[in-house]
Amino acid sequence: MQRLLIGLIVLLGLLRAGTVSAFEIVSPNTAGNARIEAGQGIDDTVLIAGQSVDIRGEIGKDVFVAGSTVTLASPVGGNIIGGGQTVTISSAVDGDLIVAGGTVTIDTDGLINGDVLVFAGTVDVLGTVHGDIKSYAGVVRIDGTVDGTVSAQGDQLLLGDHGLIGGNLTGTVGRPLAETVNDKVRGTVTVSLEEKQTTRLPSLTLFAGLSGAGALGLLYSLLTMIITGLVFIFLLPKIVNQVREHTYRAPAAAGLVGVVTMVVAPALFILTMLLFVTIPLGFLELGVIGILALLGGVAGNIWVGDVLGQQHWSPLMALAVGSVILTVLGLIPVIGTLISLGVWFIGVGSVAAISWNILRKAGR
């Protein structure tokens, strides 16, 4: 809570300077559900979470959303980034759609003007996508129009009677494509067959028991990370770029440094607390490790966004995407925790390595 308050204070200062736009937080009710009514337009970036999320009012900027059932039936002026057990898009989206879920549907009235990145058990594209689609899913069904390229990694790829791909079709699937696929792809088809391909994500029933308090906790945890990263990106842009590049180029090395740092640090702290004269050093080290741990989380989330977006996104966009994806995955018992911990070690190691290089150069 203290970190959140500090972050909010800094954020308010940035808002007064006109540096960034505000967030509109839509809280769930006591039943755990969240809704934006028709006619309740919001001209800001929206953060919303709940067991059932229903968005009927027009959103002017980006939407960050998490819930068991997510329905979006109103225009969005920016990107949609989120996750849920069932996600349905039945309106126009000016930006990209980045989502993780059990079942993700772009309905017949759905229109995505940007690209689509999706992790799901089942993906149904019944509407129109003007950009590219990159999917990691069990089953992908396209019965609408995709103007760009489709890249599919999963078990099965199906094109319906109304399915049309304007660009290329690439990827790896576990089942052979239908013979009629070539007639529905204007570009080239380079899809390889890999038996026993299993990219199906677990059904995200973990959202089903999300209470109002749980949804708020999820939302504020996500908001805290984004605010912390926003401050980091705004105040230290050059260092952020160095950390970002180092993490992207050598994640394994960064992860190793992170593990070693977090193993050695407690031992050093204990040693410094044994002698009275070194106790101040111990508290200093504790503060440094706390900052390192916090910024390591930010760096790790940016790295996840960079991997998914291949470093094409801005640092803030990469942070937002990585934060949402890791927040959703973090709800999966054991596996989600291990993934989040691994990403955190990578971020910590990268921040530690870049900080050491900066201090070493300053000491020369």
Quick structural overview:
The protein has helices at 2-16, 212-235, 237-249, 251-272, 279-309, 315-329, 335-362; strands at residues 23-26, 34-36, 45-55, 63-72, 80-89, 92-93, 97-106, 111-112, 116-125, 128-129, 133-142, 145-146, 150-159, 164-165, 169-173, 189-193. By secondary structure, it is an alpha/beta fold. Residues 1-21 and 197-213 have low confidence and may be disordered.
Tell me what the structure shows.
- With 364 residues, the protein is an alpha/beta fold.
- It folds into two domains: 21-193, no CATH class; 236-362, no CATH class.
- Helix content is 41%, strand content 27%.
- It has seven helices and 16 strands.
- It has helices spanning 2-16, 212-235, 237-249, 251-272, 279-309, 315-329, 335-362; strands at 23-26, 34-36, 45-55, 63-72, 80-89, 92-93, 97-106, 111-112, 116-125, 128-129, 133-142, 145-146, 150-159, 164-165, 169-173, 189-193.
- The strands form two sheets. Strands 1, 2, 3, 4, 5, 7, 9, 11, 13, 15 and 16 form an eleven-stranded parallel β-sheet that branches.
- The radius of gyration is 22 Å and the shape is globular.
- Mean pLDDT is 79; it is low at 1-21 and 197-213.
Q: Helical segment tally?
A: 7
Mean pLDDT: 79
Distance between the termini: 40 Å
> Number of folding domains?
2
Radius of gyration: 22 Å
**Largest sheet features:** 11 strands, parallel
Given helix and strand content, the structural type is: alpha/beta
Number of strands: 16
